[in-house]
Amino acid sequence: MNQNEATAQKDGVKTAHTAPAEDKIPAGELNRIKNVIAIMSGKGGVGKSTITGLLAVSLQREGYKVGILDADITGPSIPRMFGVKNRPESIGFGLMPPESSSGIRIMSLNLLLDNEDDPVIWRGPLIANAVKQFWTDVIWGDLDFLLIDLPPGTGDAPLTVMQSLPVDALVIVSSPQDLVMMVVKKAINMTRMMGVPVLGLVENYSYLICPKCGEKINIFGESRGKEAAEQVQIPYLGSLPVDHRLTELCDSGSIEMYDSDGIKGMGEWVKDIERLKKK
Amino acid sequence: MNQNEATAQKDGVKTAHTAPAEDKIPAGELNRIKNVIAIMSGKGGVGKSTITGLLAVSLQREGYKVGILDADITGPSIPRMFGVKNRPESIGFGLMPPESSSGIRIMSLNLLLDNEDDPVIWRGPLIANAVKQFWTDVIWGDLDFLLIDLPPGTGDAPLTVMQSLPVDALVIVSSPQDLVMMVVKKAINMTRMMGVPVLGLVENYSYLICPKCGEKINIFGESRGKEAAEQVQIPYLGSLPVDHRLTELCDSGSIEMYDSDGIKGMGEWVKDIERLKKK
């Protein structure tokens, strides 16, 4: 591309927020969903899916009815984490999302594949359609919270979720690297352009406790979640360490067995949602 | 979507490899590129860009002329890692990629933005076009190796690179989590469907040495790179630990200052490329 074309494309980006937003798609008739929260990072591998899973577990333990819409079409981790393998059942009106052992409803493209490691080699429009269909054609029923696990980047899936689904608020996930934070800032700037409110920033992989000597190790550098949140002017929700036990539970499909003080307060993260909705 | 539609979409995936591949786009007239290697994971955040960067540094130190095409359009990390900020210069025929301090040529969408944290909110077709233009409209000149840093997933950018660019081989990056390996297997299966040969698997974040007591900590679980590579029948290239010094150098744009025994052998990873090309 020449400089002009490059600039033209770049300017296209800047005007993205002035483009008329697609109308939000209403929920299916059988669905009564009180709150829709998307979990986003922009950067991959910061533990977005793990945090989505833990937030779901935490809200479920507080007595709320929770569902997870896995919008990471080409790299879905949610079913594996919850040990859910059942194929969604088609009952005429739509697809019934399978439930985890504690009753969290889950919809993910991996549940529609014969083998979980089959690749989904799709271009953007197909990806966007799948995300929309997970909203319109899935019988979520009554839910207090539907959590949407977004893929990395600011491409088709996040754009479709923010444009077409009635997202009430977003949780942003980062890790303590400047380089990660740069990409996360892109995501935060995107939410501003799209006009979706942000509940706050969570810092993952903040530190690790050495199992031998108890030393607190800043694996990816000094924690700076609080400072980063202030910089981008969003609330700081808290930080999570690297916990080998959690990794093992996620690998073995038992995230719901995780019992740590660290996640007790997670339900608090979304307490601001009523206030944000009134805005 | 109903079950049939879901299956239809799924079957669409399976036949992706039988669809006629787009013709490979020839290199620009001013470009003489001997080897094109893409670095892929499928999963985000496993350090794909860091490994792309280290491989480039390693090959450059061996005397090769190296370029990096950053195909992660919405989450580019390469320019920051190398401390490259210059805007690519337009010289009529195309864009001149800026060079790092050691002379590695770099093209990335972030170099075309006014601010590095401006989000690029693009749907698939625009992303695919940018990737193609980084091949056709950039004056790479004479290169021994062009490394392509792919974004996570198996969507538009990886598909465009494998369909339209003359990629000689891929390096696959993973980390020691079952859940990560599941997504990485999708990427490996995609390379098979697309008929692009794989040089091998690199395991990143294999372990961490406690700075206080010297304990070797398996942060994300027991290293199983070798076993995983055997399972998917590709060569095992080696593993890299979490190194706080490397993180710092990447954050400060000084990856070229990294001097570790760990990367000395990295040039070896690509030695098989001539054999793969003859296939």
What features would you describe in this structure?
2 copies of one chain form a homodimer. In chain A, 33% of the residues lie in helices and 18% in strands. With 279 residues, chain A is α/β, with parallel strands linked by helices. In chain A, the strands form 3 sheets. In chain A, strands 5-2-6-1-7-8-11 form a 7-stranded parallel beta sheet, with helices on both faces. The first copy, chain A, has a two-stranded antiparallel ribbon with strand order 3-4. Chain A has a two-stranded antiparallel sheet with strand order 9-10. In chain A, strand 9 (208-209) and strand 10 form a beta hairpin. At the A-B interface, helix 1, helix 4, helix 6 and helix 8 of A face helix 1, helix 4, helix 6 and helix 8 of B.
